[in-house]
Amino acid sequence: MELLAEFGLFLAKTLTLLGVALVLMAGITAMASRNRPQQRDRLVIRKLNDRYRDMERSLSNAFLDRRGRRKLRRQKKQEEKLAAAGSPDRERVFVLRFHGDLRASYTENLREEVSAILTQARPEKDRVVACVESAGGLVHSYGLAAAQLARIRDHGIDLTVAVDRVAASGGYLMAAVGHRIIASPFAILGSIGVVAQLPNFHRLLQRHDVDYELITAGEHKRTLTIFGKNTDEGRQKMREELDDIHRLFKTFVHRYRKELDLDRVATGEHWFGEQALALGLADSLETSDDLLMRLGRESDVFELRYEKKQPITRRLSLAIENTLARVFSDPSR
């Protein structure tokens, strides 16, 4: 108990110092940026074909003599003319990149990116590649992120989800929406399960004669608390709620991947790429780099990124929250 008390005090002091530092940094930043022009949200579009072509030419230049470089420059001008002319029937590939945190904070950007794509993408002709990286987080947040990807499918546009490192729990909830999932050999997939965890300081407060009052209206308004005394009834109610969410999770995944054996894979476990492929959690093994380079040979590939201006206080709070989540949580939760 003494060790627990010391840890609690240490944690409280640490959080207090972090809070003070956050307020000070926010104040300094607000004063420094008071006279700066306000930056507007914007949609940034990059044509990946140009990037790959520039990389190829830069490397080719290193192997050529002067005569060869002149020839390469002439060839480059001809290709640029052809590219400028374009072809209205050429397939277009739109690339999205989702980097998830505990709250799926990038969902606000994702919804704008999806909306932009839907104004231009041609059903059954163009396609979308979503590169998803997330170890999961809050249920409602990742439910909304998955719903944004579902908008693409609902409009009859082909959707491929690429997982290079991890798409677990809420991340896999998003990945399952794709018509197909590609994964690198050691990417982590799965973790179709739900978890809730919280510390309880009731005995510590009781030892120091501190009372904690919790007043609710509704039998199950609060099942478990951090400072109050938890009951077996409250624990049972929490388990029932987690089971309900787990059933919703499995139903959602089954809607898009009907061939999955949910009794086998919806246990909360996670698997690496090759194992996931054998279980049907992925459809092929490939990195997003290889996929996009291959598509770029026959299609125009555009990467979209919606840059949303956030206050410094919001960015700092997210950074602290994500750091704590990584320290105290399993990466494949």
List low-pLDDT spans. Answer: none
- Radius of gyration from the alpha-carbon trace, in angstroms: 25 Å
Number of strands: 10
Strand order of the largest sheet: 1-10-2-3-4-6-9
H/E series: HEHHEHEHEEHEEHHHEHEHEH
The CATH architecture of the largest domain comes to Alpha-Beta Complex
Helix content: 40-55%
Bulk shape: globular
Structural class of the helix and strand makeup? Answer: alpha/beta
Task: Describe the SSE topology.
Elements: H1 2-32, E1 42-47, H2 48-63, H3 66-85, E2 92-99, H4 107-118, E3 127-133, H5 139-154, E4 158-163, E5 166-168, H6 170-175, E6 180-183, E7 188-190, H7 202-207, H8 232-256, H9 262-265, E8 270-272, H10 273-279, E9 284-285, H11 288-296, E10 300-307, H12 312-328
Helix pairs in contact: 1-12, 4-5
Q: In a few lines, what is going on in this structure?
A:
With 333 residues, the chain is an alpha/beta fold. It has helices at 2-32, 48-63, 66-85, 107-118, 139-154, 170-175, 202-207, 232-256, 262-265, 273-279, 288-296, 312-328; strands spanning 42-47, 92-99, 127-133, 158-163, 166-168, 180-183, 188-190, 270-272, 284-285, 300-307.
